[in-house]
Each structure stands twice: as structure tokens, then as C-alpha cells.
Write a structure and sequence with these properties.
Elements lengths: L2 H11 L25 E2 L30 H6 L4 H9 L4 H4 L8 H35 L6 H7 L9 H9 L1 H17 L2 H14 L13 H47 L2 H4 L4 H43 L3 H45 L1 H6 L3 H52 L6 H42 L8 E3 L26 E11 L18 H25 L9 H7 L7 H10 L1 E11 L3 E2 L9 H9 L3 E3 L4 E3 L6 E5 L8 E2 H6 L6 H10 L3 H6 L7 E2 L8 H13 L4 E6 L8 H12 L8 E3 L1
Parallel strand pairs: 2-7, 5-12, 8-11, 11-12
Antiparallel strand pairs: 1-8, 3-4, 3-6, 3-7, 9-10
Helix pairs in contact: 1-10, 5-7, 5-10, 8-10, 8-12, 9-10, 9-16, 10-12, 12-16, 13-15, 13-16, 15-16
Length: 772
């Protein structure tokens, strides 16, 4: 994941994120957001410290408007009055809105979900193991020659952990059902004004008003009910929506933080099954689908109740003529489904063309100098115009479809439906159509209009949310790195506390003070003993695609026959057996080759080292010999083979800094890139800037170290990026182990000498263990 993308995703969840220290060790290859950040302790300790602030009440922070409101203000939302009054007179700033509610904070959401998710994963793993054993026993009872019977049993499919159950439990079942109950009560009370209207019209129609019994005992009580019941409906629906919106924010925030935490601990094998684009898509689109479903949740559950009650009351008014209106509205359901599906497809198409247009414009802006040199403005302008035309065409289709679907169908249906019902009622009924029946029927059809129109959308959102949950669960199930970086044991400790046979115990000798110890360690980027990754299932092709594939295959066969007839017989040009099988996708390997392949996946074999505290160690080797892998193994970014351990004296008490081989910057000021969320110390900052030869660069920048660099700022050269990355790694004085992965490759010789003398071996790193 790109560093800026990872930071932006968490900043969307919790605006105070950049103020906290990144509290996980950095990985040079897997997650650049970790690189050069300081870290405490083991690699895989709880990452919740990086995901937001703590309880606002515990650290003296100001409460939000909602948290400080009383019961009446919470139900009537009067605590928003100061914000609305301020927004009417000025443009609101983030400070004017105040801090978020305590239940919406990232740390609260992450802590509530993470503990339950760990329990759910363990439960699913145990249940799958029992099911796998039972499946294996069932297969063993079937003879091997009965292939069809064994095929019916099929292959064992493990069940994934139930992420939806974890999310519901973490937020609280009772809160969701309390919101649904409030919505149901409001939906039932919504019919009271219609009944009161019918009662008042009948009261004015009768001649003997003194003997007429009103619905609420008195006409003036009915008039008061026309004010009271809509007010109650509004209060109950508002309170229900507040709870469901809190639930939606909770779910989106908790899932986003789970994805962020997973991205920091995922193994190389798990990373091979996904991509950065998929993670970003899950972080934005899938979490948004869940949030949108929660906003439709109450309405989708209450819609059937509203429809049934409306039909019952309409039947009491016009009798069998009701079925004509029902038939008309049922006929609109498939039309609404087609319209909504068309709108969904057109939205995806618009997003596709929009992404393509933005992508090519970014590429043009990045390479505008080359385009100007070669006078390629015309071709690139035509390509941008082509994408714009497609996007405009898709937007036009979307606008027409939305206008037909929402304006024509939803606005004309309430007018046409009563006309049909009243026409049939007049023809089949002996009773006259009174004003009370007419007004009541029209009002009931208006109530039933929105449930009929939006119920398909609610089901569609449910399906999309179910797909999103499946994708999220599949990603969260991917294998993680196991923590093998441990504190360096001392002789004074109890040996029974360490169960490893190859544990290293260091005597309390001042002459022997190692910082990093590895004893016969074997590490790999991919665990050779892990279950092989199954290829994804191929999507079934449509009939048109299958015909095109067959036609292409026939053309290729005809072309091969033509070439064979021109060049000679196939025997003169034949391949050997292994090559022939390779053309069919079959790889032939001997037993020795398979063993060699398993060994080749081991990046480091039988590595033993003891690095003294405060020393400068240079790791020298040819390209591909494992120098970067050695640093990654110290960081805990690789798979430990055979229980290999890395012992560090800084694992508990101090921090580790890492400078990756490929320097990177985030979209921030130059000072922000060096500090990387840490507190500003002027003396330390000036010392690091001078040691990393950045003083001259700051002098020529427009705003000095306040100049914005990165995607939206000015571009830096490769050498400048390397020096900024080195300064980021050296800034923290608490870093007692500094890992530098070829930091001098992108700088000139004289600059490299300055960096080595002043930064790597200078006073800036005094007392720190440096591995270069």
C-alpha cells in the first residue's frame, strides 16, 4: 500500500491519526507506510495504538456536542442549534463542529471489533478442523473405485468467519433492534393522521354532529392529533436514524481500521493473493456499501409493514377496487428493478470512464515535459477527448434513466393509481364515492408509494453488502506473519520461561553486550510448508464469448497448419517431450528438482550473527545475495522457518528505525516528511538536517522546510528523496537500532562521503547500533 494512501485512509477515520506515533515496525518491501517509522516492541503487538485517540474523557479532551447533551436535547437534536446558527453566518471550519462523539472514534470502534474478531477466527478455525476431519472420515468409508460417489461428496470447503455477526455484536444487538422498534412505532403512528383526516371529513359530512363519536372523542382533539402525531413520528424517526447512522459509522470505521491493521501484518503469501488496488477498493467502496445498507436497514424492514397496513385500510375504504391499485403497483416493481439496475450499471460505467480520464490526465501532467518535447499534444488531447465523450454519453444516459425512473414513474404513479381505483370502484360498487373515502384513499396510496419504490433498492443494497462482507472476510482471513522478534534473554532470567531449545542466554558481561542475535536462523518470504494457493475460479464465459474463443482457436490452428506446410513436416520441427508437455501447461519435475525448488524459496539459510550494541556493521554481498532480506528478517517481515528467532535488546525498551532501499515521500511539507508524526525538537531537527546535507536544499526551496513536496507539491530528485528518507530514520534519538538499506546509492560520491561521516558514523547516531 502506498504510504500516502495508507495515511489518508486512516485520517478519514480519525483526523488526529498523524499526531500519534506509528507503533509497529517497518517493512521495507510490504508496507512503505511502516518504513522509517519508529517502533516499540514486537512486530505483531496490538496495532490499536496507531488507530486513533483514546477516550476523550480520560485525557482531558473536550466532549462532543452530542456527548454533552441531555436526554431531551438528544431526542430533539437541539444541541445542533449553535452549529446551525454559526453555519448560517459563516463557513464552518472543522474546529467549529467540535470533536466527534466518543462512540464514533477509531480506537473505540477498533477495540470493540478486534477482540471479538480474534475469538470468531479461532472459533471458525476449530469448527473447520472438526468438519474437515468428519469429511475425511466420510471419504474413507467410500471405496476408491467409486469415483462418482466420491465426486458427490466433493472437496471440503471451509466456512469463513462470520464478520457480520462480529460487527453486530460489537455495536450491540439491542441498539439496532431498539432503532428498528422506534422506526416501527413511527411507521404505525404515521397512519394516525390519515385516520383522523377520514374522521374529520366524516364529521363534517354527517347532519347530526351531536350524536357522532369522533376517533379521539372530540373534533378539537382530532385537530390537535393532526399536530401531535406527525411530531411524534418525526421525533421517533429522527432518533432511529441517529442510532442507525452511529451504527453505520461504527461499522465503516471498525472495518477500515481492521483492514489497516491487516495490511501491516499480512504475510507475503497473503499479499500475493491480493493487490493494493483491491485493498484501497475495499477500504473505500466496500465499507461504503455497508454504511449505505445500514442507512436503508430500518426503512427496508418497515416497508412491508407499511404496505400491508396501507392495503388493509384501503380495502376498508374501497373494497375490491383495491386489487386494481395493487396490480398497478406490482406492475411497477419489475419496472423499478430494471430502472435501478440500469442506473447501477450506468453509475459503474461513469466511474470507470471517470477513473480512466483522471488516470490519463495525471499521466499527462506527470510527463508533460516529454509530451512537449515530442509535440504529442494532439494525440493525447484526442485520447482525453475520447474518454470525455464516453463519460459524457454515460452521464447523459444516466440522467435520462434517472429522470424516467424517479420523475415519471414515482411522480406519475400516485396520480394514475387513485384514478384507476376510483374508476373501478364507481363501476363495481353501489355506494357513492364520498370525500372521506377519496381523501383517505389518496393519502394511503401516498404512504405506500415510497415503500414500493425503495424496497427494491433496499434489497439491492443488501445483496451488495453481502458481497462486500464476503470480500472483506476473505481478505481478513489471509495469512499473517508470526512474531518471532523477541527481547534478548539474560542469564539472570528463569530459563523455564523460554521453551525454545535454541534460546540464547547472554551473560551480564560489559564486554559482551549484543543488540541483535540470530542463532541458525532460516527465513523465507513464503512459507514452503504452507498450503499452496489455489488459483481463482474462472468466470463462466457467455455464449458470445465462447463462440469468439472457438473462432480464434480455429484461426490459430489453421495458421499453424499453414506454417507447417510451408516449413516442412512437424517431425523435422518437433519438440522434445518436456517442451511438448510445457506447451500444454504441464510442468515435468524430478524429485531432486522439487526439493531444490523448496530450498530455493528460502531467502536466508542457517544465519547466525551477534551484533554488538553501538557498533556499525556493514553487510556486503552481490546482487540478490539477501542483504535486504537480512534486514527484513530483523524487522520481523519474513516467515520464520523451523522456529527461528531474532533476539533484540531493543525489543522492549527502545525503538527501531529503518530506511528502505527505495526512498519515498508523502504529500506533506519537508519538515512533516522528516518528523513523520513525531514531536518537533528544534535542536535535534537542525542536527539531523545538517548531517543529511539538506541545509543547501532548504535554502533554495521556496518556503524552506515548510515547502510542500509530494504529489501536490514540488518534485524532489532521487538524491534529495534519499536524504529526506535518511533524515526520517535518524530523527528519533530513542532509536537504538538503525537499519539502513543502501541509503547512499542515489547520491553523488562527495555527498555520500558527507552522509557517511556526519550521519551514519557521526554524532547523530552516537550510541545506536547501525546495520548498513
Amino acid at each position: 500500500m502506498a504510504p500516502r494512501e495508507a495515511y489518508d485512509d486512516v485520517e478519514n477515520v480519525e483526523k488526529r491519526m498523524p499526531e500519534t506515533e506509528v507503533d509497529t515496525p517497518e517493512g521495507g518491501k510490504s508496507a512503505p507506510v511502516q518504513a522509517t517509522a519508529t517502533s516499540k516492541g514486537k512486530k505483531h503487538q496490538d496495532n490499536s495504538e496507531t488507530l486513533g485517540d483514546g477516550d476523550p474523557c480520560s485525557n482531558g479532551q473536550q466532549l462532543s456536542y452530542e456527548d454533552s447533551a441531555n436526554c431531551v436535547s438528544s431526542w430533539l437534536l437541539t444541541y445542533l442549534t449553535p452549529v446551525l446558527r454559526m453555519g448560517a453566518s459563516k463557513i464552518l471550519e472543522p474546529e467549529d463542529v467540535g470533536p466527534p462523539s466518543s462512540c464514533d472514534r477509531a480506537k473505540h470502534c477498533y477495540d470493540a471489533v478486534q477482540s471479538l474478531w480474534v475469538v470468531e477466527v479461532a472459533r471458525a478455525k476449530e469448527a473447520n478442523e472438526k468438519a474437515r476431519v468428519a469429511h475425511q472420515k466420510k471419504l474413507e468409508t467410500i471405496p476408491a473405485d467409486r469415483i462418482k460417489q466420491r465426486a458427490k461428496v466433493g472437496k471440503f470447503q471451509p466456512k469463513p468467519p462470520n464478520l457480520a455477526k462480529v460487527l453486530w455484536r460489537s455495536f450491540g444487538y439491542w441498539r439496532v433492534w431498539w432503532a428498528v422498534a422506534l422506526y416501527v412505532i413511527s411507521a404505525v403512528l404515521q397512519f394516525m393522521p390519515v385516520l383522523i383526516l377520514n374522521d374529520l371529513v366524516q364529521y363534517f359530512e354527517v347532519a347530526d354532529k351531536e350524536n357522532y363519536t369522533c376517533l379521539l372523542l372530540h373534533p378539537w382533539a382530532d385537530v390537535a392529533g393532526l399536530f401531535v402525531f406527525p411530531m411524534l413520528v418525526s421525533v421517533l424517526q429522527t432518533r432511529s436514524q441517529v442510532i442507525l447512522n452511529h451504527c453505520a459509522i461504527f461499522i465503516r470505521t471498525s472495518v477500515s481500521t481492521l483492514l489497516f491493521s491487516k495490511a501491516l501484518t499480512i504475510s507475503a503469501a497473503g499479499r500475493a493473493q491480493t493487490s493494493t488496488g483491491q485493498v484501497v477498493n475495499m477500504m473505500s467502496n466496500d465499507t461504503q456499501q455497508l454504511q449505505r445498507f445500514l442507512q436503508f436497514f430500518g426503512f427496508t424492514l418497515v416497508a412491508p409493514i407499511q404496505i400491508v397496513l396501507s392495503l388493509v385500510l384501503i380495502y376498508r375504504q374501497v373494497g375490491n377496487a383495491t386489487w386494481v391499485g395493487i396490480a398497478f403497483m406490482l406492475g411497477l416493481v419489475p419496472i423499478n428493478g430494471v430502472v435501478f439496475s440500469k442506473i447501477s450499471k450506468m453509475r459503474r460505467k461513469v466511474l470507470k470512464y471517470s477513473d480512466s480520464r483522471v488516470k490519463i490526465i495525471n499521466e499527462i501532467l506527470a510527463g508533460i515535459r516529454i509530451i512537449k518535447f515530442y509535440a504529442w499534444e494532439g494525440p493525447f488531447g484526442k485520447e482525453v477527448q475520447r474518454l470525455r465523450d464516453k463519460e459524457l454519453q454515460a452521464l447523459t444516459t444516466l440522467a435520462y434513466t434517472s429522470a424516467i425512473g424517479f420523475s415519471l414513474i414515482m411522480l406519475s404513479a400516485p396520480i394514475i393509481n387513485p384514478i384507476l381505483v376510483f374508476s373501478v370502484f364507481i363501476k363495481i360498487s353501489d355506494e357513492s364515492l364520498t370525500a372521506a373515502k377519496a381523501f383517505t384513499t389518496i393519502a394511503l396510496f401516498n404512504i405506500m408509494r415510497f415503500p414500493f419504490a425503495f424496497l427494491p433498492m433496499g434489497f439491492l443494497q443488501f445483496i451488495q453488502s453481502k458481497i462486500a462482507l464476503r470480500r472483506l472476510s476473505r481478505y481478513l482471513e489471509l495469512s499473517e506473519l508470526e512474531g518471532y522478534v523477541e527481547p534478548l534473554p539474560r542469564l539472570g532470567r528463569d530459563k523455564s520461561d523460554n521453551d525454545e531449545d535454541d534460546a540464547v542466554f547472554i551473560e551480564d558481561d560489559p564486554k559482551s553486550d549484543p543488540a541483535v542475535v540470530i542463532n541458525d536462523g532460516t527465513f523465507s518470504w513464503v512459507d514452503p510448508d504452507a498450503t499452496p494457493i489455489e488459483p481463482p475460479k474462472k468466470k463462466r464465459l457467455s455464449r458470445k464469448e465462447r463462440k469468439a474463443s472457438k473462432r480464434k482457436l480455429k484461426e490459430e490452428e489453421a495458421k499453424k497448419e499453414t506454417e507447417t506446410s510451408l516449413t516442412g513436416s512437424p517431425s523435422t520441427n518437433s519438440l522434445n517431450r518436456a517442451e511438448s508437455l510445457a506447451t500444454l501447461g504441464v510442468t515435468v519435475k524430478t524429485l531432486d528438482e522439487e526439493q531444490d525448488g523448496a530450498e530455493a524459496r528460502l531467502a536466508l539459510r542457517k544465519v547466525s550473527c551477534e551484533i554488538e550494541r553501538g557498533s556499525l556493521v556493514a553487510v556486503v554481498g552481490s546482487v540478490g545475495s539477501g542483504k535486504s532480506s537480512f534486514l527484513s528478517a530483523i524487522l520481523g517481515e519474513m516467515e520464520s522457518i523451523g522456529g527461528s528467532k531474532v533476539y533484540m535488546s531493543t525489543a522492549d525498551e527502545h525503538q527501531v528505525s529503518f530506511c528502505s532501499q527505495s526512498p519515498w515521500i508523502v504529500n506533506d511539507t519537508l519538515r512533516g516528511n522528516i518528523l513523520f508524526g513525531r514531536k518537533f525538537n528544534e535542536d535535534r531537527y537542525n542536527e539531523v538536517v545538517h548531517a543529511c546535507a539538506l541545509s543547501d536544499d532548504l535554502a533554495v526551496l521556496p518556503a524552506g522546510d515548510s515547502t510542500e513536496i509530494g504529489e501536490r507539491g514540488i518534485n524532489l530528485s532521487g538524491g534529495q528523496k534519499a536524504r529526506v528518507a535518511l533524515a526520517r530514520a535518524l530523527y528519533s534519538p530513542e532509536s537504538k537500532v538503525i537499519l539502513l538499506d543502501d541509503p547512499l546509492s542515489a547520491v553523488d560520491a562527495h555527498v555520500g562521503e558527507h552522509l557517511f561521516q556526519k550521519a551514519i558514523s557521526g554524532d547523530v547516531c552516537r550510541g545506536a547500533t547501525r546495520i548498513l
